[in-house]
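In the previous chapter we treated chains in isolation. Here, by contrast, the input contains two separate entities that must be folded as one system, with a combined length of 1116 residues.
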Amino acid sequence: MRNTLVALLTLCTTASAVSAQTFTGRVAGGGKPLKGAAVTLLGSGGQSMLCFVLTGTAGEFSISVPDGKKADALLFSHLGYARDTIPVSSFRQGQTVSLTEQALRIKEIRVRAPRISESGDTLSYMANSFRQKQDRSIADVIRKMPGLHVNGDGTIEYQGTQINKFYIEGMDVLGSKYSQASENISADKVKAVQVIRNHEPVKVRRGISFSDQAALNIVLTDDAKNVWQGTADIGMGTAAQQGTDLMGDTRLTAMMFARRLQSISMYKYDNTGKDIIKEVADRLTHEDNAPTEEGMLRNISTGTPSLEARRTTFNNSHALATNWLFKTKGGNDLRLQAGALHDKSDQRQRRETFYTDVTGGTVTAEDVEAVARRSEMWGELTYKVNNNRTYLVNTLKGYAEANRSNGKSVLNGKTVGESVKPRKRYVSDTFGMTRRMSGGRSISVSSYLSYNSLPGSLMLADSTWQRLRLQSVHWGAETCFRHRLGSLHVTYTASAKGRHQKLEAMNEEHCGTDMYDEMETRLTPSVSWQDNILKVRVSIPVAWLTRSLGTTRRSTLITDPSISISAEPTANWQANAGYTCSHTPAGLTETSPMPIFTDYITMRQGSGCPDYTRSHALSGHIAYKNTIKGLFASAYATWIYTGGIRLGRSTLEDGIYRNKATETISGSHLMNIYARIAKSFSRPRLNAGLSAFHTENRYSLMLESVTPCRMKSTALSADISIQPAEWLSAEAKSHMSITGQENRRDSRLSSPTQRSFSHEINLYVMPGNWQIEWRNEMYHSSDGSVSANFFSDLSVSYRKKTYEAGLSIDNIFGNDKYDRRTITTTQRIYAVSRLRPRCAMLHVALSL
Amino acid sequence: MRILCCVLSLLSFSITTAQAKGQEDTVTIRVEYESHIRRYEEDSLQIAYQTLDIGDRTSKFYNRRYEKNLEIQDSMRDSNASGKEGIEERGKNNLPGISVSYAVYKNYPHKDELTLTDYIAVHYRYTEPMNGISWTLENGDSVVCGYRCGKASAVLRGRKWTVWYTLDIPVSDGPWKLHGLPGLILKADEQKGDFSFEAISITKPHGRIVFNERKYQKCTPKQLQEEKEKFEASKLDYLFKMANVQKPKDLKIKLADPKKPCLMEYYR
């Protein structure tokens, strides 16, 4: 009976507590009241927190269940004590809950460093956050960074604009040949890649002139600094198709990155189709270099079809380069660069060319087999002072090449020999100095001089020889004074530049010499203004241009006004727009009236008049970035009208294409639109990008009369890389291009639109130190008369930090032929290219 | 420019004293937060890294890089080094510019009191009561930094905060002034997106919580808010005023146009 009464009493008490929805009591620990202990009401079977209170000075608490909620338990917690959970049904009103002392066990966690951080104009991409296990060079990692893009030729762009400097630890050891670093510095030696936006390399000009271009700075890990480091890679193998040629590739590099010395040297050899020569090519077009001459003759080249060059290149390349940068005691730069390359490439292609600029249209059939040899060497010495008061630079460069090609061609069924020796040598010097004075004023002087000699010989289709000798001198001098006028920066520039060209030509049709002289004197007042958001620059140069070609002499007064506006309304958005007018005199190689062959079946003859073209260019660029979300997007549009283009009339006789300048002057409109959006996700490591490009060129051809034409090309591409697990990653790319040429007078003469597609899927399985790479490429076209191609390569390697060894098999399916139709503004080409055979290679790489 | 340098030097020498040891507490838990901060209304978010050192009695939320910078400044001044050397020294330590200068000490100097220090040309300090924040527990949970978290929200002086706290660390603390939940706040988002904090590391270091004793100018929270607004309205005038130096009439220094500061809280 007594038990029943107790049970009833307890039930009533509990019922009363539940109906009141309020629980009161005290919390104690170690026999003392606990102040600040958390009392939490739990619902949903202890899964959700309904409400909480903190205990008062005497450890007391009173907590009510929120309306409409059902409490299941009370949770008591305090730092230094074990948690205690009491079901509501077990809690007694006024109960003192005693917590047991227990040291807090914290699970220590470090989550992640930010993938991209921003400080002022500098964006820092943490290399580890973007690097995937299969990446070897820093270029592989940069490809995965949103906002940055590495083009096929190795050039790097930020938000659609080429970078203007490539620094390593803030030092410019490579100048324009930065691919040597991006392709050879190991990805694990890099801590961060920094993009310095609006980068003005000349410190004196910072705050006076503004730049919309970005520079890249590679921040190395501590163990990659102040020590000599190197790599030695050797690969050997054999073709397993079309014979058993021996294959090999070698890489030797030595690098040092210290505060007062940086050095990068390398030697590479390859005959497996890899383009190692691109690594020693100039990548920056914005360097203040003296202009040099472009020759009229070229080595025999069958052109690169629209697939990976390593599939069609039969090379035998050696590349040697060394770069040294010394910091003097005063902090100035002394840079020495030198290099040489030798390449012997087999060229083989069957080609049918339909000339759309020849009345009636005729097809030329060629079956070319040739060997092209390149032998080039260069050297450059630069001294630079770049501090906040003075900028001084002098660059001395020299270059020499001895290229030659020999071969034969079956031209319209007739076998003819081919031989060409294009040679080029130049030496140039560039000097510049800027001095900052008080009151925000500065004065600059600069000059350049280059001497070029381009002798060459060419065997024509009729087995006769043409000999050319082109010599030229380019020179220029400039001085400018900058000062502030209120909030404006005003610059007055006086400049003079000129060139002297002499061309001696001797072939069966003509033997003679032409001379061309050009001199331009220019005065350029320019004004720039900027505030936190807007930057505006206006310049209105006036120039007196004098040209003489042979006995014809012309002088012209020209003005080339330009305006550029740049806005950064928020840190996420950046936009700029501009208009530029420019006059470009045509040199001797374009205007010489002598009939000159540029290859064994192509002859060009200029007007004999010192022409110039004038162009009006409008451009707009907008970029968005959100570093926190890893989202980058950019778009640009340009429209260029070029007037003063002298049309040439083309004929085709006995397989020889002749283009002779006429009296007719025409113009062209060129429009380009580009957009790209890229997003990076941290988990899983996923980077995705979409790009679109459209170009339209409206131009004229001289057929029976002036015929308006239009060339349109649209390209769409998508790329993605993902690493869902430490041992697994994948990369995929897809590209579609649509190209068409339209004869706007007679649509029957238009070229049919070509649609071509390429897809690439690479899969990497990397358990432990093993790495299995499976690369797949597919190329197909809307043209049913050409075949689709599928390539697959497989490699297995064992990678450790200091060495790697592996086996690879390229072109597993043994594709040996690639045929495609391509369209240019004046030609439709059907070409059948030979592909590299299946081959197996063994690789060993050591990191020293 | 020289005059401005003199003014700044004068300010620096006149108002700072060497760091002295104040009340000390032992750090039991250190939480690093990645903070996204909008400093000015028209600016984008900037990233900062702030630390919450939790001790037995007090806690301190601060920018470790900023404090390191102060230490370097103090040591350079003590050794009579030039300004250029100071900048180089800071550069060697890879310390970015000072962007977040405030520190919040909870339960300091007394229990249930909060002390905030900040630097706007001079070092300011105020103490206010730690009034309970009226939190509403909400449905929803998340995992932050490996800890299971509950969700709560509250309005604090004009801004609504949504936070995630973990009962696994029963410390009623959090970033900035946020506190008063049954567990440590590991993530906090301001509703407009102007401010947010997310824990990126939780460690148990060996260290002390030290109140940096300086010659602070004491003020109220509202006064500090007004000083910030005055400073941003005209930085140059403010600097001369604080240095008690007459601004030369012919001084021509172009500073960036004033921006409207984005305040974390609004005292009225």
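The CA atoms of residues 344 and 373 of chain A lie 4 Å apart. Confidence is low (pLDDT under 50) at residues 1-19 of chain A. Compare these points with the single-chain example from earlier in the chapter.
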